[in-house]
UniProtKB/TrEMBL annotation:
This is Protein kinase domain-containing protein. It comes from Ajellomyces dermatitidis (strain ATCC 18188 / CBS 674.68) (Blastomyces dermatitidis). Residues 25-60, 399-496 are annotated as: Disordered. Residues 25-59 have a biased composition (Basic and acidic residues). InterPro entries: Kinase-like_dom_sf. Gene3D superfamilies: Transferase(Phosphotransferase) domain 1. Residues 409-425 have a biased composition (Low complexity). Residues 455-465 have a biased composition (Polar residues).
Amino acid sequence: MADNSSSDYRALFLQAEEGRRLAEEGRRLAEEGRKRAEEGHKLAEEGRKRAEEGRRLAEQRNLPTTFPEFIRACHTLLSIPLRVAASSRSTKGTIPQPKGKYCPTNLLQWADLPAKQQDIFTSVCNYLEPVRGAAPRHFPPHIALEELSRRISHRPLSTEQDLETYERLAVEDHIVDIIDELCKIPEAQKEFGLGDGVRFENHANSLDDAYTNQSDSQRARPDQFCIHRLDNNISTLLTTVEYKPPHKLSVENLRTGLRPMNFWETVVKPRTIPIKEKEKLKYNAQHISGSAVTQHYHTMIEDGIPYAYLTNGLALVLLHIPYEDPSTLYYYLCEPNLDLKAEDSRAFDQPKTALARALCLCLMSFRSAPRDQNWRNAARAQLHIWKTSFDYTLSEIPEEELRQVPPDSEYTSSEYTGSEYLPSSPTSPPESRRMPTRSQPGCSPSDLGRHMESTDSSDSDSNQMAPGRKRGFSQITSSPPTQRAGRSDSHNAQGGRFQQNTAKFCTQRCLLGLCSSDLLDYNCPNVTRHQHGEKVERHHINGSTLLRLLNQQLDHNLDHNCWPLGNRGAYGSLFKLTCAEYGYTVAAKGTTSTLWTEVSGEAEIYRILQRVQGAATTVFVGSINLAKTYFLHGFGQVRHMLLMAWGGDSIAKLEQWPTLRQEILKSKKEFRALGVIHGDLRPENMLWNDELKRVLLIDLHKCPCVAWGKENLNGSGDFSQNRRDIQQKVKQWNPYIRSTRANIKAMSLGFHPAICNKARSSLVSVNSRHRRAFTDGDSSKYKKKALHLSRWKGYFSFIYNAYFDSSAYRRRACPSG
């Protein structure tokens, strides 16, 4: 019995124990389930947070950036990843002999530039990131910059084109964006004188280069882009930037070659050329760097710009020519990827990135005025000439020397803390700084600076020269007045103007009366000034006197009452001139000495057309030769002008072309009656004159003409009496016609092969039978051969005048193009 009770008790105990174990197991499983549920909830929460963070980051990457974010992103995404291809000497082909360029006498470090750029950068930040309110987001989002970074970093810099593409995408376009935003803020627009914004464009070659058919490697100013200020459809040159790829202009050569020195004596005219390896490498670095900055310095002098910079993508060299001492060039070498430490939270408060450096220099240029023509002429009269070109300098250095790293080329911070090389401190005694003056006819430096506004008064620390240094240039320049805070609205496209271009052109009848010493035209807007305070009916002076007065006026000061209008053709650029004494305002076609041999013949054509001046063509006053050079950006050095009445606007701007056809034919007929055929009847050379209600034909230097007899001058049209004159012209042209092969070769250089073949067949045929074509004027096939030839070359232009007067035949036999 007892045993049974013990067994039952034990069974009950085991059952109870099993129940407790099961219960404990249930609680454990429940706890694990709860924990798993909590873990699942936690994972779900983390997933939700990650999704939200991803959405936030995606939204942020697609969100336009603030100005500080934009500056930082451009540096980290566009500057730092930049790679350079393996060094190679990529200049191919024949390198032409270098041309003479103005070069500085002294090279100095621009020590106070960081402080000046910091002031400008702080002002920009205050406008684009105001203290009050949320920072505006006006700039490209991160995702766009990341995509741009991917495309840029995909290909390392290896050519000039690579560098130009990189600079356009990574720097130039973003400068335009920033300045566009500043233009929307009236206070910023006024402070910096921004106008309507800025534009980057290729440097325009001078017309002399185009006229002489120079190749790209012969250009005087290669690899340059121009930065223009836009204002009311007027484009003003601000500064220029020159690109030199790092495989040609290395950072190491810049570090070694750019040192404070007497540039002329150390680089251009050294006493000895070193032969030891280290000294020779240093000498090479100075020549390479010096040639690069001299090329840009030459442009700065001719274009009258105080600031410019050159870059190889990894480094920038900021340049400045002071007003008082143009023989000194200040430089500032900066390497953004090394100058700026990205981990420093305050680093981007300073303008140390490539974008910030270039932006601040542009804004400094906005605040400055271009140097006037007198300053440029006086400066170039004193400067040394160095026959150099960058590619030629490289070609003169052996390949093995170019591959070596020059000494003293280690990186050092671009922050100059000492005052040893401040612009106010000369690097050499006054005697060594005084430059020899080159004789330049007609360049009177005593006039310089009379009307020049100071471009550098805000740079007073930079430009206060020691007494010994100022001697030579400041003695021939008057002290410029205090600079205004912003660029004056009176500046026009060529700079150095401090007067409003408000003068109105004299009428055709006014200048026609002037040239014939006849009556005044009371419809002329300047008639009161012509009368000179007297009640007279006739002009006080004649055309010859006006030419003399204008010539004297321009010889005294090219910037006074002389405005370039920006209308430029293949052979000249248009100016507006006003006679200060009598108020006559005329148009002037300015051209260079090289082109003058081609353009000067236009005066003779106007003489032949004297009877139809003021009817079929504009009134021609005469020509003048300038004693000084007018430096016109993108055109060349203007030394000659043709003066005439303002003709009007091109018919290309008019919509009712068919209604003008009768007037065009009328003017052409009046030309033909005087033996002149206009050889370049493009819409740009046909002007509608509201005063005369006529179409005036201009640009006459290509007009072929024949000296007809009296009958033809009276318009009889009987050409048979002039056969003897034509045969005489045939004899004059015979040497050219005999040179068949030379002519074919010359034509093949500039024409399509199909045109060359046509010209070749015409030339060979006419070469053997041209005399019969002249004597037997009834032979149409010879006429056609001669007409084709006259289209391609100018040798037979007189045939066109004599035998092919029909404009319908001309259109059929010699189509345009």
